[in-house]
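Hi all, long-time lurker, first post. I run a small reading group and we've been trying to get comfortable going from sequence to structure in the token notation. Rather than ask abstract questions, I figured I'd post a concrete chain and ask someone more experienced to write out its structure so we can walk through it together at our next meeting. Sequence below, copied exactly:
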Amino acid sequence: MSAFQHIGVLGAGAWGSALANIAARAGRRITLWARDPRVTETIARWRESPKLPGMRLENLVTVTGSIDDVLDAAALLVAVPSQAMRSVASALAPLLHQRTPVIVCAKGIERRTRRFMTEVVAECVPQAEPAILSGPSFAADVARGLPTAVTLAARDEALAGTLAAALGSSTFRPYHSTDVRGVEIGGAAKNVLAIAAGIVEGRRLGPSAAAALTTRGFAELVRFGRAFGARAETLTGLSGLGDLILTCSSRQSRNFSFGIALGEGRSVDEAQRGKLVEGVFTAFVLADMAKERGIEMPIAAAVAAVLGGRLDVDGAIESLLSRPFRAEA
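-- Answer (accepted) --
Happy to help. Here is the structure in token form:
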């Protein structure tokens, strides 16, 4: 029997609700915490998240509005936006048991501190065991039980394997790893590159340009990952190349759809339409971190320049197309 019979999920948005269903289908008892009391009430009454209409939550999922109710769980999945990770981790800090696995399910870098998500957890909750779950996955597909494979990484290999087994099922396959940094770099960087891919789609530059952008974007992701100690097999795996391919090719991706809107001529505010787009926050910090370390990331830098109002879309495209010819590497 798995040591992780009771799992807490923090965040009852689309991804948190989908993960709650996945863990419940794996036979775990789930406590799902929602920050918004209105969401708690809606889920309790209708058994579905407002962010995933029509997707019923499994019977093993209990919803709560009190963070105290998840503290007896053997492991926690934290599915809140990356820029909210610190506030949620800080709320856990005085209450969490020693060595409880805290599995980050957000894809981003904290903008103010330039911390990766597991670093935020380790800083705020020193008694926790930080881990990360990431890979090519859309919440609606996962919630419906469509086949999905992701990567789950923790520094301790035995823990990573046990957590993967506790969440895995016939339709949700977590591969385990100890390359925590590589997994979270893939998830964060691909969001920024997906915005660029969306711009190419919105500008109707054609599938050849889209393929070139995705390929050269992957080269940037690899350069950044290597500079921060990521393993090559992680960057070419599910949480790196796999997630990049998915996010750069589907309108289900908020980052890709946001980029399409920019490419069609909408402003940043109009393109967001009030939705959270993680790549908007990550673009600036990714470009800054790359510049600091001398990592060549022209696509990410162009996206940051567009979002910051330093370049318009046409200027960004011209800046990339006018770069000197060079050997492919």
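A couple of things your group might point at:
The CA atoms of residues 11 and 309 lie 32 Å apart.
The chain has a mean pLDDT of 94.
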